[in-house]
Structures are given as C-alpha cells and as structure tokens.
Write a structure and sequence with these properties.
This protein is an alpha+beta fold. Helices cover 30% and strands 31% of the residues.
Length: 1275
C-alpha cells in the first residue's frame, strides 16, 4: 500500500471572481486524479480556508464548513464581527492574515458546539441617531423590547438557547441580532409570533426576517492604501446570480457614491465606487446578497473596513538664494509613507521662475535649486517665488505644500563724492547708488584709524525708484570728525552690499574761533600798533592782514595756550586828517589747500595825539567818552580765553569797563561742545550725555546766566544747536532739556531785554526739540517743571484718533489750559506723534510791543509728521487776571517783523467766563492777550488821533490853497509877507509830517510788517518834518518878538527869509542827520516793533522832544510878551469899552498864537508823568491831532485881510475893481515882475514875489507902522 500524504496548497489571485470558478472546478472534478508522468494520485481535495485581503488591516480569513480555527489562533488574532464561535475558544473567522502556512483545521468531534445564527429584520419607523450609541436610553429600550419579543418567539422552538440584539443601522431601522441554538432549528416558524408582538409599537416588517451569512461573499477594495481624494472601488462577488444585492454603511451617501452590478462568467459582481473620498467617510462597508429561495431568506454578507488616510507632507523651511550661480539650496517634502506610492511634481509661481532638479531619498522628494545673476533682474531682487511640491496617487488623491524661495541679487554699489578733499566748514555730499531698489536698511559708517562710527540717520536721506535706490549723505559744515573712510551699506535681509570712499578734511578755522585783539580801538596819530588774530588751534596757517586790496603777511608767535598771528602797523597824521574815519582791517587764514576764512573786522578809529585823554598800555588810548572793545583774554588772571568781549569807555582820564560780555568758562565750554556735537557724525548717540551735562552746567552757572545777557544768549544758542538732533523720548532726555529751559526762563527780565531775538529763539528751539523726539514703545513721558510742562501721545492703529492734553500750574495763580485735536484725518497706518508744551511765566520775557498783555499760559503743540489736511486745534486758556477784557487768541509768528510777534491769523476767539476758547487751523506757540480795564480809553485816543489827523490834512490842504489864492493881496507889507511865509511853510511841514505819521501808525496798528530800510526812511521823514514844524513855529515867534521889541530896527525881507529858511529847514536837517548817523550803526535808531525813534536803547526820541520843548518854551515867552504889549495901558485911564476891547484882543491873540506857535505841545510834559490824569492825555491828543484845523481857522480864516481878499476875489464887482487896480499897478510894475501863474504859485510857496514899489511914506511913518504890527500879525 502506498503511503498517503496531506498537502496544503495556497493559491493567490487578484480577481476575486476566480474563487467561485475554482470551487466549481473542484466540485466537478472526478477523483482520484493521477498526476501525469508520476506514481502520484490525488484522492481528495477539500477547501479549508478562504482569505480575502483588502490590505494588511482589512483582511478576513473564513473556515469552510467542518473546519475551524484553533483556540490558539483565535486568541492571537482578532475574531471577525458576527462570526460563528464554538463553545470554548475555537472560531470560524479571523480578521487578519495569519502567519504563512497556517490554515483552518477539522472540527473536533469531542467538543460540543452551538450554532450562532446572525439575523436581521427591519422596523418601518424612522431611524434616530441615539440608536448609534449603545449607552443611550433609546438604544437600551429598543434592545430590551426587541430581545424580549425575540426570546418569547424563539423559545417555542426546540434547541433555542438565546437571542441577543447586536445593533441598529439605518434603512428605516435594521435590527441585527444573534440567535444561539444547540442545532439547526426552523427559525422562520417563530417569526409570525415575533411580528405580532412588535408590530403595534415598532411596526416590524415580518417579510424582512433573514439570516446573515459571512464568508460566502468575496469582497475586495482598490486601492489597497486609501488616501483622501482617491477614487475607491469596493467589489463583491457571489456565485448565485439570482441574489439581490444591497449595501450597508454608516456614512451619509452622496452623489459621489456610485453603485453598479454585472454578471460575469456565472458570478454576480456588485461594485461601490466612491469618488474623491473624504476622511469622514472611513467606515465598515458591507455588501448584502439576499437569497429568497428558502422559507427563511438568507443574506450573504461581505464586509470591509475602509480606512482613509491623509497624505501627510512636511516641507522644508523657506529659503533665500543669492543669485550668483554658486548658492545651491535644497528644497524637500517628506511623508510618512513610501514615496514610491506617489507621483511627484514641483512647480514655481512668482516673479522669478527658475527650475531645479528632482530626486527622491527615503520618504522625501528633493529639489535642488540655484540661480545666476542673469536670471534675477535687479528690480526683482528680494521678491519671493512659491515653489509647490505636490504628491499624487494613481487614484486621484493629491497633497501639496508651498516653500517660499526669496531671490537676492548682489547689489552693485556706486559711491561718489562732490569733493574728495574739503576744508573745515565746507559743505560736501556723498551719493551712494544701488542698482537694486529693494532694500531693508541703509547704514552709513565712517572709519578713522581703528575707530568706526555709525553715522546718524539725520545726515542722510534715501529715495528709491523702480530701478535703483539712492542715499545721499549731506554734511553742511565739515569738521575733523568727518575725515575717514566712508562705507555705504545696503542690506537685503541677510545680504549686504557696500561701497567705500575716502574723504579728507583739511583743518581750517571758523570765524568764531578767531580771536581779534583789539576788536575795536582808537589809534592816535602818529602811532605804531600791533594787530593780532589768535586761535586755540595748533595747525599752521598762512595769515594775511588786509584792508581793501592791501595785504600784509602776518608773523606767528605763541602766547600762553594761543597761536597768535600779528602784524605791526604804522599810522601817520594822514589817517587823522579825515574826521570820523574808521579803518577796517581783517585777518585771513589760509590752509594747505589754499582755502581761506576771513575774520570779522578789526575797527580802527583815529584821533590826533593832542586829543588823547585816556592812555593805558593794556587797553589803549582815546578821547573822552571813546570806546574800545577787547577780546576776553587772560580771564580772571589766568591764561584762559573765552568768547565775548569787554567794552571799555574813557571816563575823563580813566578807562572803565562799560560792559562785560565775556562768557562764563563752563558756558563757553558748553557752547563749544554743542557746536562740535551738532556737526558730529554720531551726534544722536552722544546727545543724551550732552543733555545731562547741559542741565548740570546751567544749574551750576545760574547766577552768571541771570547777570549776563551774553551767557543767556549762549545757552539759547546751545539749545538751538541740539534741538535739531533726533533723540529718544525718554524721561531723562526730556527732563534734562526741560530743566535747562526752566533755568533760563526764570532769568531776570532785565537780562532778557538785551538778548536779541530771544523769544523766537527759545520758542523755536523748544518746538524743534519736540519735533525731534522719537517715541519709545509708542509713548511720550510727561515732564512737570515749576513753570514748564510737556505732555504728548502717539496716535496709531491701536490708539484713539483724538488728542487731549491738559495743564495746571498750582504755583502760578492756578493757571490752567488744555489742547484738543479731533476730527483731523490721521493716517493710522503710521504713528503720529503729538507733543504739547505749556509755559506759565513766559510773559516776563516776551517783549511787549502792544497795549494788550499776556493773560494766560503760553502753549505750543507739535505734530510729527505734519498733517497736510485742514484741521482745527482747540485750546482752553484760563485767565490770569479776571478784571481784563477783550480777549484775543494769538500765536507767535516767527516771520513777523524782525524778532517775531503775536498774530491772530487763522484763530477764532470765544470768551467763556473765567476761560477763553481758541480754535485755530495751525500749530505753534499760542497765548491769549487781553486789554487792561484802565487802558480802554487809549482806544478812544487812537480814534481821535486818526480823525484829527485826517481833518488836519484836509484843513492844511485848504489852507495852502487859500494862501496861494490870496497871496498877492495879503503880502503887501513886509510884516504881513513874513507872517504868511511862516504860516505857509508851517502848513507844508505839518502836512508832510501828518501824512508820514498816519501812514506809519496805520501800518503798525494793522500789524503789517515793514521792511527794515523802509522803516528807517519813514522814521527819518517823520522826525525831520516835525522838527521843521517846530522850527518854523520858532521862526514865526522870533519874528513876532523882533517886531514887538525892536521897534526902530527894520531888517530886509531877504535877510528875514534867509534866516527863516535856515532855521526852518537846515537846522532840522542837521539834527535829524546827526541822530540817524549816531544811532543807526548800533541798530538803535528805530524801535523794535514800530517805525518811530528809539527810546529804550539810544534815547533817540530826545532828538525830537528836546528841540520841541525848547521851541514851546521860547514861544510861550513870546506869547507872554505879546499879551503884555496888548494889555499895556496908555497915558490916562481907559474907558470900559477900551478895557473890553483890550481883553478881546488878548483872547484873540492867545487863540491865534496857540496853534501857530505850537503851545499845545506843552501838554506832552504832563503825559509823561506816571499816573497823570487822563484829561491831559485827552487834551494833548485833541489839540495836536487837530492842529491843522486850528491853523486853518486861527491863522488863515480869522485873518480879516484874508477874508476880504477872498471876498474881493470872488465878488460880482471883482472884475471892475480888479481891472482898475491892474491898470494902476500895471503902470508902475517893473519889468522883472513875475506874471506866470505856475511860476507865481511855486515862488509863493517858497516866499518869493515880484518886486514891489515902496513909497517914501513907509520910512517916514515907522513908529505908527510898528504899533500896528501886532495887530497885523494877530489878525
């Protein structure tokens, strides 16, 4: 007998439909079968195990009937859902492929078994979501009710053990349950009873009971690895083509689910296709084939668990590539799966699209990329390109990631200079140009030796275009700090490009560094004098002294710590021949590149040796009251020298110090440091320490600042120099600057008076400092001082667009103020810095050029950057003095007049009781001016002045017209002739003076700025014409006095006219010329804010007041003499009528003489007395403003001869009388008589007439004529 062997054969195939074909083949095979060409025969073929694999974790291995998995296998592998399990530990299905060579075994006969039948039935009621949850009350209720009915129904069948509900699924409600029995039992016999038990409540469909059989359906899935986005096909195959197919799954079906059926080779194939599967569609998918051929339908099930994965991609970081052809960068995308499962695609998208090379390594795709300069246009440098790496599956899933690649082209830098070699004090600029316009930062540096400094951003500006970028470094005044190698560095992210250039700064003095000795001096003739120009600098220069075109090479010597260049000049008597002649000498310093600087002038004045009164070897020589200006050398007995000068004045035989303008040593050093700092490349870095030093210095030298205008002015210059340097807005920096300002505004008012343009300089420097502040952390700290406060804020995207700051000074009468800016358009994409400063005591130092006074805080607001759109700034000012009125909102206009003044342009005022609301459309220094109550009458005087002068001008024009018309009729006698000559010239002079005065006054009241030279001219003519008025009044008074006192003496008209014109025009011209010549060189001819003679500095107004008062005094004496003459009694007693007539003549004389002799100007003496009654101001204004009218009335129209002449000139009988008169006069008129109308008018104006025939009776009756002179003159 041949040996028997059992051989296990494993057959693998992809097409699951071959399973049924293979079964049919084995079923129809006739056994035994002999193997050809061998002694082997196959006696029996049994199929024991069928495994359907849909992936490693999606496999099922079923045992054929009479076979089972051993208990070891059932323990080692998960058991399939709804499988038949034997009593014990054996099973007929596992959900995973076992180890190779492991198959199902024959069932053991000695182990009792039970039959578990999987069943399902449908409830025709809607499915509820709670049935998914086995812990829900609804699930438990359904499970309990159904299991109770099932057990009650099946318990009538022999061999029934138990019924258990396993779950619910949609499809109305499909109930899955298991029936456990000892053997095969007819379950269908119990279904009617079960249906009856459940139909009422659960609407059970009795026809839907069916057994569920697993393992008889071949199910497969494609692809094996499912990724989101794949198109998935689940295929089920059964050998019975009559079975009806359905699908079960828990996910919601969409239009992407496609069901198909086909019969192929005797098998029924059902396919579920899911297009673009989603992650949430991972589920257990079951295909159901229902067989209705038996009494109890059977459902053959194939189940597969579809696991949907996401393609996980991890890209490399973004990279930057330098376009030089050598910088190679690696881009990568990695996944947690085998990279071979995917198709790989890299694609660029951007302004620069450069392709690279691709390869794979491990689970990553690698993309190598590099770029040449030609592939990166200059205008595209710094731009980024998106490189997309994409992984695709064959079935439609895809994933991509983007890696940003930034391409940088190395910029080509061109650095050029306007000059390679410059002298100190010269301006130069460097231009750094890059062909790449896209940059992050630009940094300028300068290297001098081993020292490298970064140049502050205030020195350069940078602009960009579409093709390039240009940075221009501008140095307005070079010093030694600017010598070195300049580097311009353009930075693009990590890439820097730079250019170098060398600039050499040659030493050259600045004018303020040249110390002249002397500055201004007196030289006696003949004399030899040493002139010197010194400096602290140690460089060597070629120095010349020159005057006009005469140059003299200077010698050099060392004096203490100074290098001095001197020249010994000889002066002879020739220099003293020109009285008042001043020689100006300059010294010129020339450096090694032949560039030069010229010092201010050394002024030499010459006097004869005999006129020398003061003589000192240290100071010099001079006449009495002469002045010499010397530099501040050997200060306080030391070898130190500082800026400034000392003015010496010759007082009899001794030189005395008239004014000491030398700076204190610490303040001199501070100013020098400030000048150096302002021109330093790293001024921004050094500024904080300088501000600290400035505060300490001003505190230590407070006494010197209070006493000296020169020291105060030096501190102001220091503030101005440093205010333009950008500085961090921290509390220390702002506090140090504020403390310095606080120190100088508390200086005495008297000191501030001698500081030229001090107010504008102070306000301007503070505003500039506030504008230079650079906020830290988007904030501005508040600074609180005794008389100064600074507050500010930064408006931006996260902050409010309304600015509101308030100020309160408890120590200054509780002064308060606030600033509000709202409704303005602020660009919230940029930070807007707004800073306000308030001063409580600034009214002490601001010069007052108007009657209104500052009655509030002075507040200034700075907005950076400036707002171009229209906006309103509202300020509330608390009143210092409540008793004032007429509030006026004003701002400090720096361009008004010479030193600035208050201006109300663009401001509206609203009085709100104790405060005033100001609304303005610009920002600067604001204040509120108010008029004191006691000065309200001054406005009335102003109106009276304008009205009076206007009437006077009209009256004087009428007066001149009348005089020209009646001239020939009223000037027949010598006395009358001279009287009318005086009146005519008084009228001309007063008319000219009034016109000039009213124009100047109107210009001043309207705050119109008058150009300096025009103001000087206007002041000169006002002065001159008013002097002419007074001196012609004096001429009239002296003439009257002469004819009253010297009765028997008679001067000719020519002599009288000559004396009159000399007195009336030449004397005023001399006084006016001397006044302007002596004050104009010292800028003290006119007042600061008005076109009138100066009082505060030169007392030039006395050149008008003193002559006027002398004339008034003399004419007053004349008037007394006239009255005495009129009232003198004749021999014997006068009758009452004669007394009345005498009183009438006296009153008439006073009325006529008062305006003609200028007596009304005497009221001016009363007005200058402090606290004088207002009546004197009123009378002075009325009498003198209306003086022209009084002259017309009293001097012209009151004259009886003038009235008769006018009457005769224009009466009806004028023609006949005039005809006869002309006939008689024509016979006696000489040949040289002036007949031309125009010539006669012009000659009459200057007192010229034709030749008159004088009869012999004039000389014989001199006494009677003299007696009648007073009458003739007064009428």
């Amino acid at each position: 007998m041949l040996p028997e062997y059992t051989i296990a054969v494993e057959i693998n195939f992809v097409d699951t439909s071959l399973q049924e074909d293979l079964r049919r083949f084995f079923k129809n095979l006739s056994l035994p079968v002999s193997v050809p060409h061998s002694n082997i025969s196959i006696s029996q073929i049994n199929i024991t195990t069928v495994c359907n694999s849909a992936g490693t974790n999606l496999s099922h291995c079923f045992c054929e009937p009479d076979y089972e998995w051993s208990d070891e296998i059932c323990k080692a592998y998960p058991v399939c859902h709804n499988t038949t399990t034997a009593v014990g530990k054996s099973c007929n299905c596992i959900a995973q492929l076992p180890a190779q060579g492991t198959f199902c075994q024959l069932q053991s006969e000695d182990i009792p078994s039970v039959l578990i039948t999987n069943m399902s039935v449908r409830l025709d009621i809607p499915f509820k979501n709670d049935l998914w949850d086995s812990s829900s009350a609804l699930f438990k209720q359904y499970k309990h009710d159904l299991e109770t009915a099932f057990i009650e129904g099946y318990s009538t069948l022999p061999g029934f053990i138990n019924a258990t509900v396993t779950g619910f699924r949609p499809g109305s409600i499909m109930v899955g349950y298991e029936v456990t029995s000892a053997r095969q039992i007819p379950l269908e016999n119990a279904h009617p009873k079960i249906a009856a038990l459940l139909n009422h409540q659960y609407n059970l469909a009795a026809s839907t009971f069916a057994t569920e059989i697993f393992g008889k359906v071949n199910i497969s899935i494609s692809p094996e690895h499912v990724f989101e986005g794949d198109t998935v096909k689940i295929t089920c195959t059964t050998e019975d083509t009559s079975r009806k197919v359905s699908w079960s799954y828990n996910v919601i079906m969409s239009d992407r689910f496609t069901l198909t059926e086909e019969i192929k080779m005797g098998s029924k194939i059902a396919t579920l296709t899911i297009t673009d599967i989603k992650l949430n569609e991972a589920d257990n998918f079951t295909c159901n084939f229902k067989d209705d051929s038996e009494k109890l339908p059977s459902i053959y099930k194939g189940e597969v668990n579809v696991v949907v994965s996401q393609i996980k991609l991890v890209p490399s970081e973004n990279v930057s590539i330098i376009c030089d052809g050598t910088d190679i960068k690696e881009l990568s995308c990695c996944t947690d799966r085998d990279i071979q499962l995917f198709s790989i695609n890299w694609r660029p998208n951007g302004a620069i699209n450069i392709s690279g090379s691709t390869n794979s390594m491990n689970n990553c795709t690698i993309y190598l990329l590099k770029a040449s300069e030609s592939q990166c246009p200059a205008d595209k440098s710094g731009t980024s390109t998106d490189y997309t790496c994409e992984l695709n599956t064959t079935y439609g899933a895809r994933a991509n990631r983007i890696i940003k690649v930034t391409f940088f082209r190395v910029a080509k830098i061109t650095l050029s200079s306007s000059k390679d070699i410059v002298s100190e004090g010269d301006a130069f600029f460097l231009t750094c140009q890059s062909d790449v316009s896209n940059y992050d930062t630009i940094v300028w540096k300068i290297q001098n030796g081993r020292t490298i400094k970064e140049i502050g951003s205030m020195w350069y500006t940078t602009t960009k275009s579409s093709t390039d970028a240009t940075s221009v470094l501008t140095v307005p005044r070079a010093n030694q700090d600017w010598t070195g190698i300049y580097t311009c560095n353009f930075s693009q992210s990590f890439l820097s490009s730079f250019g170098n250039i060398t600039i050499k700064v040659i030493p050259l003095l600045q004018p303020q560094e040249i110390i002249r000795d002397p500055i201004e001096t007196v030289v006696s003739c003949p004399e030899t004098r040493r002139l010197e120009c010194c400096t602290h600098r140690m460089e060597n220069y070629i120095v010349y002294f020159f005057s006009h075109d005469h140059y003299i090479r200077a010698e050099k010597r060392r004096i203490n710590n100074l290098n001095c260049y001197y020249s010994i000049q000889s002066f002879t008597d020739i220099h003293c021949n020109s009285e008042g002649y001043a020689l100006q000498m300059h010294c010129m310093f020339m450096n090694e590149i032949n560039q030069n600087v010229t010092s201010p002038a050394i002024v030499l004045r010459f006097i004869p040796a005999k006129n020398v009164v003061c003589n000192s070897s240290d100071i010099g020589v001079g006449a009495n009251e002469a002045q010499i200006i010397k530099p501040c050398l050997n200060l306080h007995g030391t070898s130190n020298s500082v800026r400034g000068n000392i003015i010496y004045r010759c007082d009899h035989t001794k030189w005395i110090v008239h004014r000491n303008n030398c700076l204190a040593g610490p303040i001199n050093d501070l100013l020098n440091s400030a000048e150096s700092l302002a021109s330093s490349p790293d001024s921004q870095e050094k500024l904080p320490s300088f501000l600290k030093k400035m505060k300490e210095t001003t505190e230590q030298t407070q006494a010197e600042i209070n006493k000296s205008a020169a020291n105060l002015n030096a501190v102001l210059e220091t503030l101005t120099l440093v205010s333009t340097i950008p500085v961090e807005a921290n509390e220390e920096n702002m506090g140090n600057f504020g403390s310095t300002v606080e120190a100088i505004i508390t200086s005495p008012t008297e000191t501030w008076k001698y500081v030229q343009n001090g107010t504008s300089q102070l306000l301007g420097s503070v505003e500039q400092f506030l504008e230079s502040l650079q906020p830290i952390n988007q904030s501005i700290p508040s600074i609180i001082q005794k008389s100064l406060q600074i507050k500010g804020t930064v408006l931006g995207e996260s902050n409010s667009s309304i600015y509101n700051s308030s100020f309160a000074f408890s120590q200054s009468a509780g002064l308060m103020g606030s600033v509000l800016i709202e409704g303005a358009y602020f660009d919230t994409e940029k930070s807007i810095t707004i800073v306000s400063v308030a001063y409580s005591t600034l009214e002490r130092i601001i010069p007052q050029y108007r009657k209104e006074m500052i009655n509030s805080l002075v507040m200034s607001t700075v907005i950076n950057p400036q707002i171009n759109e229209d906006f309103q700034i509202k300020m509330a000012f608390g009143k210092r003095e409540k008793s004032t009125n007429n509030p006026q909102c004003v701002f400090w206009n720096f361009s008004l007049a010479e030193e600035g003044d208050w201006d109300d342009t663009g401001c509206e005022t609203k009085d709100d009781g104790d405060s005033v609301i100001c609304s303005c459309n610009h920002t600067t220094s604001f204040a509120m001016l108010m008029s004191p109550d006691e000065e309200t009458s001054l406005d009335e005087l102003t109106y009276i002045t304008y009205i009076g002068l206007s009437l006077s001008i009209v009256s004087l024009i009428i007066c001149l017209g009348i005089e020209l018309v009646v001239w020939k009729s009223v000037t027949k006698t010598r006395i009358a002739y001279m009287r009318h000559v005086c009146i005519l010239n008084i009228a001309v002079s007063l008319l000219s003076a009034d016109i000039c005065f009213i124009v100047v006054a109107a210009t001043h009241d309207q705050n119109y700025a008058v150009e300096g030279n025009l103001c000087i001219v206007a002041t000169f003519f006002v002065h001159y014409f008013y002097l002419c008025v007074f001196f012609w009044m004096l001429a009239l008074g002296l003439m009257l006095f002469y004819h009253l006192v010297f009765l028997l003496h008679s001067a000719s008209k020519t002599i009288m006219k000559t004396l009159g014109f000399c007195l009336g025009y030449i004397c005023p011209l001399i006084i006016a010329a001397i006044t302007i010549a002596s004050t104009l060189p010292y800028s003290s001819y006119t007042r600061k804010k008005s076109c009138f003679l100066n009082w505060e500095e030169s007392k030039a107004v006395l050149a008008l007041v003193i002559p006027a008062m002398i004339v008034v005094a003399i004419n007053a004496i004349v008037t007394v003499v006239v009255i005495a003459k009129i009232s003198r009694r004749s021999i014997g007693e006068k009758s009452i009528n004669e007394e009345k007539s005498s009183l009438y003549r006296i009153a008439k004389s006073i009325g006529v003489l008062t305006p003609l002799l200028g007596l009304t100007w005497g009221f001016g003496l009363a007005t200058v007395v402090p606290g004088s009654p207002k009546i004197f101001h009123m009378l002075f204004t009325i009498f003198n403003a209306f003086q022209g009218l009084f002259i017309l009335l009293g001097g012209t129209l009151w004259d009886k001869k003038v009235r008769e002449a006018i009457r005769n000139k224009y009466s009806w009988c004028r023609w006949s009388s005039q005809h006869s008169k002309s006939t008689s006069q024509g016979m006696s008129a000489p040949a040289l008589s002036i007949n031309s109308t125009v010539s006669r008018s012009l000659n009459n104006l200057f007192g010229k007439t034709g030749k008159y025939q004088v009869s012999s009776t004039e000389s014989s009756t001199i006494l009677s004529e003299s007696t009648s002179k007073a009458h003739t003159t007064l009428t």
